[in-house]
Amino acid sequence: MDASHAHRHPVFCTVVPPHLLDKIARSEDTRRADAAQRTLEQDALLRTRRRVTTVRGITPALGTPVSDEPRRTVYDAQHHTRLPGKKVRGEGGEAVKDATVNRAYAGLGATYELFLKGFGRHSIDGSGLALDASVHYGQDYDNAFWDGQQMVFGDGDGDLFLDFTVSVDVIGHELTHGVTQYTANLAYHGQSGALNESMSDVFGSLIKQYSLDQTAEDADWLIGAGLLGPNVSGVALRSMKAPGTAYDDDELGKDPQPPTMDGYVDTSQDNGGVHINSGIPNHAFYLVATELGGKAWERAGQIWYDALTGGQLASDADFADFARLSVAAAVARYGNGGAEHQALQKAWSTVGVPLAG
Predict the structure, then answer these.
(1) Which of the following is catalytic: 122, 275, 283, 340?
(2) pLDDT digits (tens, 9 = 90+) for 169-188
(3) Which residues of the chain have pLDDT under 50?
(4) Count of beta carbons in the 10 Å neighbourhood of residue 278
(5) Are 319 and 353 in contact (CB under 8 A)?
C-alpha cells in the first residue's frame, strides 16, 4: 500500500453539505434558520473533535475467521448529543416499534450485504468491523454523519428535511466513508475530497440499486430521494444522472453541482467544494454504468471498487489520477479495448477529465 495511506486523516463527513445549511441559516423563517444554525454549530463541534481524536483501527486476531454475517447495533440518542446512547436493537434482534431504528438496522445490513456479495469485502474495514448506528440525534438535527467509528442520524426538522434514515443510499453513503477511510483514505479537501464524497455517492446509489434489484436503466440515480420535506422544490440532495438539477428552492437555493469540468467550482468553502465538485466523478460513473447496462454493481461498481481499494490511489489523488486508475482497473479485469475500457474512456472524456499524462 502507498505510504501515504499509513496516516489516517480524521475526517468528519456529513451527507448534507455545509453550503446548503449556510443558505438555510440565512432564511427569513426563524424556525428554519435556527434549526440550520444549530446543525451547523453541532457539525463544527464534531469536526473539531474529530481533528483531535484518532481513527479506530480494528484488526481481527491472526487465524480468527471472519464471519459472513454483520454485527449490527442500533442505539437511541434520545435527542441528546452524547454517543452512542441507549442500545435498542442488536444483531438478530426482533424489529422494534420505532421505524427509525428498524430502517437504520436494515440499511446497515444492506450496506454490509452489497460489499460482501458484490465485492467480497467483510464490512467496511474488510475484517468484519461491527456496524454501529445512533438514531434520534440532537434536536431537529438536519444531518447524518460518519464520525470515523459509527453512523449517526438526525430526525431532521420535519419541514425542510425529514428523518435521515428514510433513504438507504444515505446510510450507504456514510458507511462508504468508512470504506474509503480504511483503503485509499482520500484527504477531505479539493479534488481528493470530492472523490471521497463521490465514492460515497457511487456506492450509496449501488446499495439502493442492489437492495431494490434494479438495473442501471431502472435506477433513479438520486442521492437522498425522499429526504426533502413536502414544501421543498426538489427531489433529492444530488443527482448523479444530471448534477445541478436535484433541487431549485427558495430556501435551499439551486443545486450547484457541475456535471463536467467546464463547471468546476473553485471555492474555499466546504473543504474546497467537496460536495459540489463531486458531481463530476458522479456523472462519470453514471455514464459508465448506463453505457454498460445491466446491474451497475457488477461491472461499473467493480471497476470503481478495484480502483479505490487497489492500493495505488494516493490520499491526495485528483480526478485525473482516479480516472487513469479506473481505466487500468477495467483493463486488468476485463481486458484492453473491451466494452468496459471503451465506456471508461468515453465517460471521462465527456466530463472533461483527461486520461493522458
Answers:
(1) 275
(2) 999 999 999 999 999 999 99
(3) 1-9, 51-62
(4) 29
(5) yes
Cell digits of residue 126: 474488510
Name the pTM for this structure: 0.93
Place of cell 505510504: 3
Reference 264, options 351, 150, 157, 205; nearest CA is 351
Q: Are 298 and 292 in contact (CB under 8 A)?
A: no
The Cα–Cα gap between 128 and 183 comes to: 14
Set of cell numbers at residue 318: 485528483
Options 9, 122, 136, 174, the catalytic residue = 174
* Three-state secondary structure call for residue 248: strand
Number of Cβ within a 10 Å radius of residue 184: 28
- How far CA 331 is from CA of 92, 328, 346, in Å, comes to 41, 5, 14
Helix (H) or strand (E) holding 223: strand 222-223
Alpha carbons 73 and 10: distance in angstroms, whole number: 23
Contacts by residues 267-271 (CB-CB < 8 Å, ≥ 24 positions apart): 269/18, 269/19, 269/22, 270/17, 270/18, 270/19, 271/188, 271/189, 271/190, 271/193
122 is catalytic: no
Bridge-based pairing of strands 144-146 and 222-223 is unpaired
State pLDDT tens for residues 113-154: 999 999 999 999 999 999 999 999 999 999 999 988 899 999
- Which amino acid is residue 307, in one-letter code? A
Q: In the annotation, is 174 catalytic? A: yes
Q: Are strands 151-153 and 131-135 parallel, antiparallel or unpaired?
A: parallel
- CB distance 307 to 332 below 8 Å: no
Secondary structure of residue 238 in the 3-state scheme: strand
Q: DSSP characters for 167-212?
A: -HHHHHHHHHHHHHHHTT---SSHHHHHHHHHHHHHHHHHHHHHHH
Calculate ∠ Cα 286-289-290, nearest 5°: 85
Q: Quick one: angle between helices 190-212 and 319-334, nearest 10? A: 40
